[in-house]
Amino acid sequence: MHREAESQLSSDTDLEDPDGKNAKTGKGVAAKKGKKALGDKAKGGGAGRVTGPGWVNGHHQENGMENMTLFEVVKMGKSATQSVVDDWIEAYKHDRDTTLLDLINFFIQCSGCKGAVSGEMFRHMQNSEIIRKMTEEFDEDSGDYPLTLSGPQWKKFRINFCDFIAVLVRQCQYSIIYDEYMMDTIISLLTGLSDSQVRAFRHTSTLAAMKLMTALVNVALNLSINMDNTQRQYEAERNKVIAKRANDRLELLLQKRKELQENQDEIENMMNAIFKGVFVHRYRDAIAEIRAICIEEIGVWMKLYSDAFLNDSYLKYVGWTMHDKQGEVRLKCLTALQGLFYNRELSTRLELFTSRFKDRIVSMTLDKEYDVAVQAIKLLTLVLQSSDEVLTAEDCESVYHLVYSAHRPIAIAAGEFLFKKLFSHRGPEEEGLPRRGRQSLNGSLIKTTVFFFLESELHEHGAYLVDSLWECASELLKDWETMISLLLDEPMPGEEALNDRQETALVEIMLCAIRQACECHPPVGRGTGKRVLTAKEKKTQLDDRTRVTEMFAVALPLLLAKYCVDIDKVTNLLQIPKFFDLDIYTTGRLEKHLDALLRQIWEVVDKHTDTEVLEACSTTYHYLCNEEFTIFNRVDIARSQLLDELVDKFNRLLEDFLQEGEEPDEDDAYQVLSTLKKITTFHNAHDLTKWDLFTSNYRLLNTGLQNGDMPEQIVVHAMQCTHYIILWHLAKVSDGTSVKGDMVTLRKQMRAFCLMCQRYINTINNAVKEQAFTILCDLLLIFSHQIMSSGREQLESLVYSPDSSLQAELLNFILDHVFIDQDDDNSTDGQQDDEASKIEALHKRRNLLAAYCKLIIYNVVEINTGADIFKQYMRYYNDYGDIIKETMSKTRQIDKIQCAKTLILSLQKLFNDMLSELGFNFDRSSSAFCGIKELARRFSLTFGLDQLKTREAIAMLHKDGIEFAFKEPSPQGEGSPPLNLAFLDILSEFSSKLIRQDKRTVHMYLERFMTFQMALQREDCWLPLISYRNSLQAGADDDTMSVISGISSRGSTVRSKKSKPATASKRKLPEGDSSSSDAVWMNREQNVQTPVMMHSPHLTSTVLRDPKKMRPEDSFTATFTMPAEHRRGSGLMEDDEEPIVEDVMMSSEDRLEDINEGMDFDTMDIDLPASKNRRERTELKPDYFDPSSIMDDSVGVFHFL
User: Per the record, which residues fall in region Disordered (predicted)?
Assistant: First the structure.
């Protein structure tokens, strides 16, 4: 905090009132903060409640209201500020001491202090002593005070507080403020309070002092104006001839000017005292809000009274504070400067400041606070308007690229800057140009936009550029007539024509402008979604859509004809019809242009095999074939003719291609592939079931299996086409439009195709195997038991569940093709050095894994098959951690116990793999064993903090772990630990998740597997058992003893109770019903004797029992009774599902990492190439666990999933 000496006025400069009373400045003191009900009545022997003529405690009594303090009046805000101040002034004229005391208490109470300054204190104590006394009145339990309290009442209070100070000075500006008493006392008090270590005092007094300073600046400005007027009057009178000159008027004007000068000097002294006593210290206060207040007000002073304040002596404070660590302070600096640069007269006086701090302003366009960055760009726009020479080309370029920012306000501000810089300057030669057309001014500006777009080298973000310029240049971007002219018309003599690259960019910009005008919302990655349009915006949208339809219904066929062979241009141009108002084709008598468009689409389909172009054609037909419009029949006929030709050509080519005994050449294969690709693309969005393509595709796939030499792309597209056939068939069966026997046919086709895909999974080609796997997973999910949901029981015969062999093949595919190192992936054909190829390959593997994980969480395959997935969690965390974690979370929602069993099974699999690799004499400090233990720790974190919710699951997890640890005998013979005993060290990571009574029960179950000799072992090889037992005993009841104390007490018990019958040294497990082993267990009370503590006088056998002869599950009884029905059928969401969070009470290390591990559900954003920005990746990221995500959006009929 600041030193007490700061901002203190020395005693020899204290200002005296006419009565000889000193108003001395106080010092800041160490203070106690406190809180009581704000607005409590002032204490201190009636101070603050002095009665004057018609005045009661800072306000006259109205309508019988209770007497209120000035603070309460301002807080309630029921009286006009003007009347409150007038009443106070009237009272001040009668008794200024007591009324001024009310004002002092007003500032004290506005700070949240419950105390009040009494008349005695005011007369005999210095300000520092008064402040110290008031500091003691604060409540230590809270730091709240009026300026920090939330709610509409306190927000209004802040406004009323500032208004009160401004009105007070304005009403007193002609007399009272010059009485050398009121203002001196207030300034002295506020200066002392602003130096207090109590934040409430410092904050409130700083705000009051700054508003007081602003009010004084207004007074000084008025005085300056009056002085100038008086001077002009004096000069005019003096310049008159002697006969007409009025000497008495000259004397009056001189006297008036002298009084005004004296008042001006006095006001300047007051402002100087506030500036040096408060501002200079508080603009660098520790509290950001206080610093912001200072900077905001100095900006007001410089704008109001520029002659006095707009100089480097004051501007430097704003420049320095632009480096403040808090965004709100930097924001105030920029807004203060905007007010100065907005005025052209003032901006010319900022040249030195601009040259000194320009680089800082430019760097703030990349500020981490979005609001600050926006205001920095707006400030640079004002700087640009004031002078073109201030900003260099590099400065401008640093703003230009922000038009592609994902944050829309930043992008719009940058778009305005770009528009002002590039498009606002018109030369004299451009004045006479036409308004529209190729030779218009807009034509030149559109070319400039295209050049900028190409130079920015972010070509896939044309929608972002258009959105950034939309608010300031929408008229330019909606000049589609000029754009069409630039694309179709021949250039004029001497005019430089657009090259191919520039035409492609112009087509993209034109499409983005059409989309922006017709959809009226920003592109993906900007904004939170569609907003509700106003009536005016809706009308503009309809008008723009009508213009687009009328203009491009004529121009689009011409554009397609000109650029028919250009893939990029055609793909963009074919997206324009989806923004048409199709009624206009009829109402505007444009049918001939529709026919021309359909002919051009036919030509495009015939000439192209590129997937993007074909998808654009298919989508255009899908939009135009709308039964609601009269053009439907015309378009439907054209579509049917196109598909008839494609199907006939495919069947003809297929017969030749599959001729026995003939080797198909490459040309035949290409023809078959191109035709099949077109049919497949159209089948995605159109129902082609009447052409019966299943037979030919199935024949093609079967031949490929038999011969093994079918080109991979033919097989891939044949699979995809068959997949669409089955889905369209299912759609017809589901909505009831199918004929009798269709369901039987669908069932046969679906099962035959699934078997075909299963066979293709075992082929050699990677692309074919991946396609077969993806389609098979989709079909298994679609035709699972969930197909009967929502009242579709009639589809029960279509349910298809994978058998164990198919489940094993799917799992093996995942293990062989997903969980591989990047260098082992050969699917990128030697392009591993290309980073984009690596990302694309990883994205493909993530989709494969997600497809299989959906089968787990939707109960298509057994949950325990996830063990092989879960065990890869640590090793492939960066690549698939988010998918595996989400799968665990969803699986736990289905069945907590089965999920826990799956987790422990995954750890057992890793443990067995380690034994196979290192042998049974492995080192427990090895990286392999530590990795398994770390994975167990990560698994334990996912169970959350609520131990009661996971009680059964954790108990079963320990049960399976204990049985596994003692399952295999030692390969070294009797007396050695079991082969898997070290697994108990891994299992101990889950001990903290057991509640106290369950720890005791698990401990008893553990001892069923132990001989008495095991409990005595202390060698290193037995440490896992010792540590596990200790973890179960930690936190248990006091009657649970350690290993040694338990044995010792047992020995003494044997000696003292010789009358008890002896028991065998070997413990026999009681026989029980094995069917109840997993349903109930741990139904043991504390008085049940544990095996180690049983009376055994004849300790002769230490032979390790054969675990294979032990049947622990036969005696596994429990406290909890689980439902008899299978839990996996209970649905995906449970009300008591716990969040995946960290148990902060665990004893393991690496807590900071665990917090992220437990809370972060979405750790990867690599699903798109690196050129996509972060926000866009987030928006486009697929939902791996949404069953509807497996189908194309354009197939609108699959609503039944």
Answer: 1-55, 1047-1079
pLDDT tens-digit series, residues 516-527:
999 988 888 887
Q: Largest alpha-carbon pair distance within the chain?
A: 146
- Which of 1008, 1031, 1054 marks a domain boundary? 1031
Contact assessment for residue 330 and residue 369, using Cβ atoms and an 8 Å cutoff: yes
**633 in the same domain as 764:** yes
Other CB atoms closer than 10 Å to residue 227's CB: what's the count?
17
Rounded CA separation 36/987 (Å): 55
1166 is a domain residue: no
Based on the fold, state whether residues 775 and 901 are members of the same structural domain.
no
Distances (CA, A) of 216 to 162, 187, 201, 272, 277: 13, 12, 22, 11, 15
Is residue 1079 scored above 50 in pLDDT? no
356: tokens are 């000194």
Buried b (16+ CB within 10 A) or exposed e, 781-797: bbbbebbeeeeeeebee
Q: Treating both helix axes as pointing N-terminal to C-terminal, what angle do 441-456 and 462-477 enclose, rounded to 10 degrees?
A: 170
- The residue range of the domain holding 962 is 894-1031
From 1031, 1048, 1066, the end of a domain falls on 1031
Q: What one-character-per-residue DSSP string does 715-749 give?
A: HHHHHHHHHHHHHHHHHHHHTT-PPTTHHHHHHHH
Helix (H, G, I), strand (E, B) or coil at 51: strand
Q: Are 257 and 227 in contact (CB under 8 A)?
A: yes
Query: What does the chain come to in residues?
Result: 1201
pLDDT tens by residue, 775-821:
999 999 999 988 888 778 888 888 999 999 999 999 999 999 999 88
Q: What is the 3-state secondary structure (H, E, C) of 814-851?
A: HHHHCCCCHHHCCCCCCCCCCHHHHHHHHHHHHHHHHH
Take residue 223 and report the two structure tokens written for it: 């005085």
3-state secondary structure of 1081: strand
How far is CA 369 from each of CA 327, 328, 331, 410, 857, rounded to the nearest angstrom? 6, 9, 9, 11, 41
Asked if residue 784 and residue 658 are part of one domain, the reply reads yes
Q: Are residues 763 and 900 in the same domain?
A: no
Interval 606-658: pLDDT, tens: 999 999 999 999 999 999 998 888 999 999 999 999 999 999 999 999 888 88
**In the predicted model, what is the mean pLDDT of the chain?**
78
Count of helix runs (H) and strand runs (E) in the chain: 48, 2
Q: How confident is the model at residue 974 (pLDDT cuts 50, 70, 90)?
A: confident
779 and 646 housed in the same domain: yes
710: confidence class by pLDDT, cuts 50, 70, 90: confident
Are residue 651 and residue 771 in the same domain, yes or no?
A: yes
CB 1060 within 8 A of CB 1095: yes
Q: Where residue 770 sits, what CATH number does that domain have?
A: 1.25.10
Residue 1082 CB-density burial (10 A; 0-12 exposed, 13-18 middle, 19+ buried):
buried
Decide if 932 is inside a domain: yes
d(CA 569, CA 503): 8
Tokens of 860: 């298509």
Annotate 1109-1133 with DSSP letters as a single string.
G--GGGG--BS----SS-GGGG-S-
Q: pTM here? A: 0.73
Which DSSP symbol is given to 67? P
Helix (H) or strand (E) segment spanning residue 55: strand 55-56
Number of independent structural domains in the chain: 2
pLDDT at 1082 exceeding the cut of 80: no
Residue 665 counted as domain residue: yes
Cα angle 404, 409, 414 (rounded to 5 degrees) comes to 50
Which tokens is 87 given?
């009443």
CA dist 377 and 391 (Å) reads 12
Cβ-contact 934, 1006 below 8 angstroms: no
Same domain for 802 and 934, yes or no, is: no
Task: With respect to residue 652, please indicate whether it lies within any of the assigned structural domains.
Answer: yes
Q: Which DSSP letter does residue 43 get?
A: -
Instruction: Please choose, from the candidates 416, 429, 488, 418, the residue with its C-alpha nearest in 3D space to the C-alpha of residue 453.
Output: 418
What tokens does 230 get?
């008086």
